[in-house]
Amino acid sequence: MQKVVTFGEIMLRLKPDENQRIVQTNNFSGLYGGAEANVATSLSLLGDHAQFVSKVPSHAVGQAALGTLRRYGVDVSQMRAGGPRLGIYFFEKGASIRNTSVVYDRAGSSFAVSLAEEYDWSKILQDASYFYFSGITPAVSTQMRKAVLTACQYCSEHGISVVCDLNYRGKMWSQEEAQKTMAQLMPYVDICIANDEDFEATLGIKAFDGNMRHGINQKAAFVAGMKEITVKYPNCRTVASVLRNIYSVEDSEWMALMIDNGKVYETPVYKMHVWEGVAAGDAFGAGLVHGLLHNFNEQERINYAIAASVLKLTISGDLNLVTDAEIRAVMAKQGSMRVQR
């Protein structure tokens, strides 16, 4: 079985009860998640060998985070232990015209203060077929930028495919920092995921005008941006994007595009009533990689990825707790409101 290694930070997610705001709540529910941990969990639930690499503190909170991953079959054999604390993010669910919001409390976390030299890529990536990271990881610290670059270079030298979800986070670094870093990393990336502002913020490529109500209407601009990525970085043979028309926090339309070896593929549009708009991009990335692992044709691969993504919009928490059968039912438009008995 092919192995996928994902590298990033897992955090404690604290969410106010009953759609309250952070400033008013007295109670938070706690879960664990983070982009690359979410991807590894999705892949493991789909039956793939997914290994998550990070660093968590040795105390009970760090062990609880690891326990979440173990529960869903993620390989945590290369996790590092130690350091002061687990990173935290506060998740405030929006409603109607009030946006969902995230507050980070991750400075000084075990992962953020870990050193690039702590990660022995010759051991970690042994027998790996894919290495997956998001733009969030190099944004954490200069040491993590160095760690990701070293990992990508190792992959290039040993025939391991690199998958990158650009995943720009303006609360973590500037566009200038992101572009400088990604210019170093993109020559090693084989498969790239770029959504909305990611094109311009991380690569300096204009493909989206910022109007989230009309993302799907900008398909031509997205395709042009995706093609520009493949020209600028010839090693990147595949670029995929999620396009959205967002009318309110709850109501939106979703679809995806993919360029693979110069050919454009397009998915159906899903009209969604969103339960929780978090980690759908991670579900998309996992679906894409699952398709690569199982040799799906290009159209099936992108259809599978967007179906996994929109299913995540119906699930609370960071993790996309769905099966292959459920994803395929959505692809076949067989999902229904009937009770499954």
* β-sheet strand percentage: 15-25%
Beta strands, count: 15
Provide the helix percentage: 25-40%
Cα shape: globular
What's the CATH topology label of the domain at 3-238? UDP-N-acetylmuramoyl-L-alanine:D-glutamate ligase
- Tally of DSSP helical segments: 11
Span of the ends, CA to CA: 33 Å
Radius of gyration: 19 Å
Mean of residue pLDDT values: 96
- Architecture of the domain at 3-238 in CATH? 3-Layer(aba) Sandwich
CATH top level of the domain at 3-238 is: Alpha Beta
The main β sheet shows up as:
9 strands, mixed
Pick out the low-confidence regions.
335-339
Query: From N to C, what is the helix and strand string?
Result: EEEHEEHEEEHEHHEHEHHEEEEHHH
Structural class: alpha/beta
CATH superfamily of the domain at 3-238: Ribokinase
Explained architecture:
By secondary structure, the chain is of the alpha/beta class. The chain has a domain at 3-238: UDP-N-acetylmuramoyl-L-alanine:D-glutamate ligase, CATH 3.40.1190. The chain is 34% helix and 23% strand. It is built from eleven helices and 15 strands. The protein has helices at residues 35-45, 60-71, 121-124, 136-140, 142-158, 175-185, 198-203, 219-232, 280-293, 298-312, 324-331, and strands at 3-7, 11-16, 28-33, 49-53, 55-56, 80-81, 88-92, 101-105, 128-134, 161-165, 191-193, 238-246, 251-260, 263-266, 270-273. Strands 1, 4, 9, 10, 11, 12, 13, 14 and 15 form a nine-stranded mixed sheet that branches. Strand 10 (161-165), helix 6 (175-185) and strand 11 form a beta-alpha-beta unit. The two termini are 33 Å apart. The model is unreliable at 335-339 (pLDDT under 50).
